[in-house]
Structure formats: structure tokens, C-alpha cells
Amino acid sequence: MSQPKSIIKAKFFLSNFDSNSSIRNNTIFYFATYVGSVGLYIFNKLLNRKIFFLNNFIMIIKDIVYSYKYTGSKIFFSKKILNNYNKIYLTWTSYSNFKNDGSFFDRYLNISSKDLDKTLIIAIYNDKKLPTKIDNNILIFQTKEKATGLFDVIKNILKNFDLFFFNYDFFLAKISSHNFFSDILIKKKKFLLNKKIDFFLTPYEGQPFQNHFIMQLKNINNNIKCIGYIHSPPIPIPSNYIFRNYSPDYIVLNGKDQKYCFIKYLGWSKSKIKLLPSFRFLKNKSIYKNTIFLPYNIHNLNKIIKSLNYIIQKKIINPSDYIIRNHPATKTNKSKKIIDYFNEIKLKKNFSVKAKNQFLIFIGNTGSIIEYLERGCDVMHICDDDLFDFYNSKLWPSIISTKIGQGIYIYKIRKKGNLIKFGNSKKHNIKKILNSMIKLKNDEI
Predict the structure, then answer these.
(1) How many angstroms separate the CA atoms of 108 and 121, rounded?
(2) Are 253 and 207 in a shared domain?
(3) Which of 113, 142, 171 is the endpoint of a domain?
(4) 51 and 177 share a domain?
(5) HEC string of 52-112?
(6) Which residues neighbour 277 within 8 Å (Cβ) at sequence distance 6 or greater?
(7) What predicted TM-score, i.e. pTM, was given to this entire model?
(8) Same-domain status, 124 and 256
(9) In a domain, 418, yes or no
(10) Along the 445 residues of the chain, how does pLDDT read in single tens digits?
(11) 46 torsion bin: left (phi>0), alpha (psi -120 to 50), beta (else)
(12) Residue 156 and residue 124 share a domain
């Protein structure tokens, strides 16, 4: 099945849950192709893809059990927490981003939290160590497990079990870790939502907790303007961004190809889209050389090893020239096996012929491909899953692909700036956001 048809299938599926009732809403589905989750299982099922039963079973169980990581979540804030806010910014942060004065640097907007005037910042926080000081406009939501967390997960399954008879896929999505987290977050933050709020902003990924947050705000005041900033580079199949009942009112994109894809395939209207240079990706960044990048998730280990062997045997690359980098957040044993295998090849074989090409090589599903194409690098892509990993020019018109082997591609771009328009500086990001908010409020966007 083609990638455009895959998105159409997902849109049709979500349309079946378009009712406004509390049960039949489509905000609980998360069709991110780069996350091994219940959502990925449902998406594969929609596309009639033959996935080994045991692989699906393990993926579903891992996702549901992972919910225990959130069972002991707590909130922390200053005793003098801001109470005259009219904007909410929902983001992620960590201990290393905090400063001694209680502020933190937000990597999505590339600004300090102090620059967000009259804004309550709700920061999802995954570290165990808390900052010693928290600014008055920051509320930390620390994700944390507790000893009896698995009992809470089982209770959640039993509480929602009646949905099994309503719709099996709906039931699985509702008890997934993404929705478990969403329910906890909304429950602990509900007291912060009020009619004074004019704007809501988040680095948007189409996650259930983001859509649920918007739903709660709209129930309080339907005139609240909800803005999603698409912070990541274009991904091969952006099915997690399909427009639905409680998507943001407006989204900020960073390139014309993104705008094309969101309008033509994902169901967004032109009037809901604002194009701005990236706040996260700036010009004049240092470039990697002769590197193989591993993804967060690896599904088909043998396929990747076979592809690496192919480009080495065909003398497309000289492995002696390359280093291999693991994804900073992954802990999978498959990544380690690939690293060990590649390093073993470098040690055992003598590569006397110098390869002509010096590519950056990306494996699996990653948006970094687009960033480095825009930075002028030669890029090779080894797909883990061809349907979900390959960059198709039907979705992203600026990309030119050349197939050099099974699931192996070389990419070029027709014109720089259409996929990501890099930002110039960090200084005026907040001004751009606020000005966009004012325009949105006046319906000028």
C-alpha cells in the first residue's frame, strides 16, 4: 500500500469516532509510526499488514505495562505561583535545562522560560532530581512510578473493560500508556484551567494528552485559541498529525512542503496554518561527517545488517572511514548488536579501495534526514520498514530519491528551505509567537 493511501485509511478510521460523546472521540488514537505502541499495532492492522503475532503481542503488552512509569507522578511549583496568567504553555524539560534562578531553557522555542510573560508553563519532567528553585510561572509535572504501580495499571484495565465490547481497538488505545499518562496529567492539572485563559501553546506531536488538554480547555471556554507548534522535521508518514475534533485551532509549520502535506493529506485547512522559520533548528550548526546514525526503535535487525553489508560489499562506502552513533535515548539490545557488528567488520577486513562517496547514513525512521539534507549534506537512508521510513515525493515534493538497493535510498532536495526554513537567532522567537497569537485572536492568520 502507498503512503498517501495509508494516511487516507487512518483518516477514515478516525472519522468513525467523530461524535462529541465522551466515549466516541478520536483523541485517544496515536498513529505515530516511529513509536512501538498500541497505536502502531492498530495502524498496521488498518493497513492489513502481516506482522508476526508474537511481535504484536509483545509490543502491546510493553505499551500497556509501561503505564506504571506514571503511577506515582506528582506536581511541584513555587508557593508564589503565578495566578494572573492568561496563557498556558505545555512543554517538556529536564534537570539539565534548569538554571540557579529557577528558570529553564526551552529547546523547542529556543528561549528562556522568563521570556514567557503572563504565561503559566506546565513542564513535563522525566528526571528524578528536582531543581532547587522553581520560577513562579513554572509548574513541574514529574513522571514517576510507585511500588504498587502495576496494580494501578490492572485497575485501569478493569475500569475500561466495558469498552472491549464497544470496540476492541478503542479499548486497547484507551488502556495504552499514552492515554494512561493523559488521564493522570489532566486530573492533576484540571484546577489550573479557567476562563481567563486566552491562548494555549504546545510543541505539538498529536499525542493524546495534548488533544485531551485542548478538549478540557474548549469545554471551559470555546473561544480559547489553541496553537500547536510542529517542532520536529518532516517525518515519512505524519499520520499522528491528522486533523481531528480536538486538534489545535492553528498550527505553526516551518516549510512549504509541510504546508502542502498538511493541507492535501492530513485534513488541515489553509486558514489554520502559519508558516514561520524554525525556532528549534537554527542556521550555522556544526555538521557531522562520515557517521551512521541509529534510530530510537529498531524492528528488523537482520534487514539492517544485510543492508550495511550490501553498501560495504558494493564499495559504496568504506567502513573504516565511519563511526556509528546510537540514539541518545535508546536502550535496545538491537542497537548494541548493530554497533558491535559494524565495529567487528572494521577490525576484520582490509578496505584498500577508497570509497568515492562520504554520506551521512541514517537507519530507520528519523526526521534528522531532513535537517541534514537542508544543511547541504549527502544523505543515504537504510529503511527498517520501507512503508513507514521512506521519504516519498508525493508527500514531500522537494525530495528526490534514488534507490540503490532493497530499502536503501540516496536523497537530494530540489530547493533548500522548503522542508525546514532555519531560524536566524533565538532572540525574537517569543515575539514571533506572541505576534502570531495576536493575529490568530483577530482572525488575521
Answers:
(1) 13
(2) yes
(3) 142
(4) yes
(5) CHHHHHHHHHHHHHHHHHHCCCEEEECCCCCCCCCEEEEEEECHHHECCCCCEEECCCCEE
(6) 254, 421, 422, 423, 424
(7) 0.91
(8) no
(9) no
(10) 799 999 999 999 998 887 545 555 788 999 999 888 999 999 999 999 988 888 889 999 999 999 999 999 999 999 888 888 989 999 999 999 999 999 999 999 988 999 888 899 999 998 999 999 999 999 999 999 998 899 999 999 999 999 898 889 999 999 999 999 999 998 887 778 778 888 999 999 999 999 999 999 998 888 899 999 999 999 999 999 999 989 999 999 999 999 999 999 999 999 999 999 999 998 887 788 889 999 888 888 999 999 999 998 888 888 888 889 988 777 678 888 898 888 888 777 666 666 666 899 999 999 999 999 999 999 999 999 999 999 999 999 999 999 999 999 999 999 999 999 998 865 555 566 656 555 655 554 4
(11) alpha
(12) no
Euclidean distance between CA atoms 231 and 109, whole angstroms:
8
Residue 426 DSSP class? S
The β-bridge partners of 360 are 379
In a domain, 107, yes or no: yes
Based on the fold, state whether residues 53 and 66 are members of the same structural domain. yes
Q: Identify whether 419 is part of a domain.
A: no
